[in-house]
Amino acid sequence: MKMIRTRAMRILGSIGLSLTLALSLGAANGAAAAAAKSHHGGWQNILTSDSAPLLRGWLHPGLPAGWTVHDGVLSKSGEVEDLQSTRTYKDFELELEWKIGKEGNSGIFYRATHQYDEIYWTGPEYQLLDDQNAQDGKNRLTAAGSVYAMYPAPAGVVHPYGHWNEARILVRGNHVTYWMNGRRIVDYDFGSPDWKKRVAASKFSAYPGYGRAPEGLIGIQGNHPGSIAIRNMRIKVLP
Predict the structure, then answer these.
(1) What average pLDDT does the structure give for the chain?
(2) What are phi and psi of 215, to 5 degrees?
(3) Do residues 142 and 136 make contact, with C-beta atoms less than 8 angstroms apart?
(4) 43-67: per-residue pLDDT in tens?
(5) Bridge-partner residues for 216, per DSSP?
(6) For the whole model, what pTM was predicted?
(7) 212 by DSSP, 3-state: which?
(8) Can you give the residue ranges of every domain in the chain?
């Protein structure tokens, strides 16, 4: 009887070990598949279903209070800390979908640095805005899709607050292109005579480091009023 019990225990132990190995292998394969999916075609997902592993606070590590990720949607509903990427980018293509709340004001920054206290003193901004109700929507130079306070965006492209919009930013060398909802809306060149003229005539003239970094951080504006939701945010580093 003792031998039978011992043999049964050995069989059960072997089954348990096999199950453990199978589960571990399955988890590893799942993680590998997720990683492969996130890098498909050179693209890397910035958001997962419940986290933002490639983002952190402008001042603090991790996702700051007030920002949440749920079902792949990054959102905030009031004034919170700005976000920045955990690494720098030089040439890249960035895509995302965004939905602004009533009177909401946010933006996407790029090639930003910590030279000054605020991210927008170095990084140009793709404006995310409720054009209909926010004050900045009265001026095409600060409306949705503009290079904030630098290059205007055309009217009639952005969807109203509460609806999803598509944004795309392409940065290669000194050239930058914006798209919104499938339409090409802005082109400009860092350091061009036109760029320098516009900087000199703007509030950014007080910050010599504005738009000067050849490589920098991606950022999301949080310290302005209103709500913003972002999903399907991904980036591709360009050679």
Answers:
(1) 89
(2) -150, 140
(3) yes
(4) 999 999 999 999 999 999 999 999 9
(5) 89
(6) 0.84
(7) coil
(8) 1-38, 44-237
- Cα 193 to Cα 82: distance, rounded to the nearest angstrom: 31
Dihedral sign of CA atoms 206, 192, 220, 84 in order: negative
Of 160, 235, 154, 138, nearest in space to 187 by CA: 154
Confidence of residue 40 (pLDDT cuts 50, 70, 90): confident
Contact 234, 45 (CB under 8 A): yes
Looking at domain 44-237, does it have CATH number 2.60.120.560?
yes
Residue 39 predicted with pLDDT over 70: no
**184, 70 contact by CB (below 8 A):** no
Q: What is the pLDDT of residues 151-202, one digit of tens each?
A: 999 999 999 999 999 999 999 999 999 999 999 999 999 999 999 999 999 9
DSSP result, 40-108: GGGEEES--SS--TTEEESSSSSPPTT-EEETTEEEESS----EEEEEEESSEEEEEEEEEPTT-EEEE
